[in-house]
Amino acid sequence: MSDSLKKIPVKVVNSKQPDSNEVSLYEVSKKLYPRHVTGLFANWRIATVIITQLVFYGGPWLQWNGRQAILFDVLNRKFYIFGLVLWPQDFALLAALLMLCAFGLFWWTAIAGRLWCGFACPQTVYTEIFLWIEHWIEGDRPKRMKLDEAPMSLNKLRIKGTKQLLWIALSFWTGFTFVGFFTPVHLLWNELLAFAMGPWETFWVVFYGFATYGNAGYMREQVCKYMCPYARFQSAMFDPDTLVISYDAKRGDPRGSRRKGSDYRAEGLGDCVNCGICVQVCPTGIDIRDGLQYECIGCAACIDACDQVMEKMDYPKGLIRYTTENALNGTYTEDQFLSRLLRPRVVLYTAILLVTAGAMIATLALRTPIRIDVIRDRTTLVKETDDGWLENLYQLQIINTDERSHDFSISVDGLPGIKLVPAAKITVPAASTHEVSVAVQVEPQNAPSGSSKINFRLTATDTRGLATEARSSFIGMRK
To answer: Fewest Cβ atoms closer than 10 Å to its Cβ: which of 209, 234, 391, 479?
Structure first.
């Protein structure tokens, strides 16, 4: 690492030897000062940050059919995703979506390592944004280190204070935006301006904002190294054909400094000039030349830095590069990487993704935008009316997930002469539910004793072909 680790010595007494030995049980790492880097992968990170934050910060403000386009209305148990309205009954779709995300991550990791961590993970993205602010206010690595070592002064207080204000403002807006996905953002904005936000909205804005401030401003690489479980189990998805960031030791070693244009081969040196810049730009502070490590998040900052050094020295680029273990060892050439994609774990992940995605698409295509749930009144199983009919009571819940209101009629069948009292005709607004109590009556001679299957049919009278059914039971009088 570029910054040394402070070791806390603990004395352990050896009963067989009179002398005590000191061993290190803990390592406390000092603050890292990642060096600013430019290059191809740095530009990709900038593009990824911009795209993800446009989606995140802009998502709650998008409108769709007069409402918020993306809203997870937990209070009313409805999720709005543009034209799709999901209810608790659609849990299977949510489970399929989570499976797609999980196996998509596994699939991508098996192919190209931790690209998610290095380019799209929220921890990486917000750490990158906070580093941009820090670099803009305090300067690059040497200036930041010098500023931290300097005694407190008005100038240092001004610089540090400006950075902290920008960090806090960004963290607060991040927390506000996060809550805006769960509470209508226009309502939340008006409440904020009137200082009338509810206690839960206030709590989550502060909580998420504080988490952003602490994780991206201070904890940074500690989250990736010690708190994130993905770094620990990623090795289970790696194989020798996984694309990872690697240092070409055969080409680079032995390392050593030299002057540009010198015959370093005659001096017994490799291409690595041992400048240490690859360590200085690493956001987790590792030395990629020590081999693949779980702390590596795959951001490729070391590739950009090393390529710039190689270019200045007139050496070929790619001393540090994306490659596979087998390609690096010469099992096959790097041009043959694509031919190694069809291996068992990649094929398995692909099959699971295709099956899950196909099932989800089919479910959405066949999904009826209306639903009827029937709950029979169990307090009174059956009673006899004044005119001698047998009667069961039901509570019907009509769910309209469509983007417009519908007029419905409700009918029942399953037994001879069965009828609904009263004849139900209702209107259910868009993306809402309606409950209605009805009675089902049957003449005694047509109702067998015990339970008989009946069907409730919900039909939209304003849209042809839009209908659904729900099964229930009718309890007859025991003879």
So the answer is: 479
What's the chain's Rg over C-alpha atoms? Answer: 33
3-state secondary structure of 475: strand
Which three-class secondary structure state does DSSP give residue 242?
Answer: coil
Name the nearest CA neighbour of 368 among 110, 85, 104. Answer: 85
pLDDT at 26: 53
Task: Give the whole-angstrom CA distance, residue 85 versus residue 76.
Answer: 12
Burial class (CB in 10 A: 0-12, 13-18, 19+), 443: middle
Strands (DSSP E) found in 115-206 = none
User: What does the angle CA 385 – CA 388 – CA 390 come to, to the nearest 5 degrees?
Assistant: 65
Band (pLDDT 50/70/90 cuts) for residue 9 is very low
Which region, left, alpha or beta, applies to residue 274 given φ > 0 means left and ψ of -120 to 50 means alpha? left
CA nearest neighbour of 288 among 255, 332, 261, 326: 255
Average pLDDT over residues 56-80: 91
- Rounded to whole angstroms, how far apart are CA atoms 307 and 275? 12
SS3 content of the chain, % helix, strand, coil (to 5): 45, 25, 35
The tokens of 49 are what? 């940050």
pLDDT in tens, 294-334: 889 999 999 999 999 999 999 999 999 999 999 998 888 88
Question: Half-sphere exposure of residue 192, counting CA atoms within 13 Å on the CB side?
Answer: 19
DSSP letter (8 states) at residue 267? T
What burial letters (b/e) apply to 360-386, b meaning 16+ CB within 10 Å?
beeeeeeeebbbbebebeeeeebeeee
Q: How far apart are CA 288 and CA 290, in angstroms?
A: 5
CB 470 within 8 Å of CB 372 = yes
pLDDT above 70: residue 14:
no
273 pLDDT exceeds 70?
Answer: yes
Q: In 42-129, at which residue ranges do the beta strands (DSSP E only) sit?
A: 63-64, 67-68, 70-73, 78-81, 84-86
The pLDDT assigned to 22 comes to 61
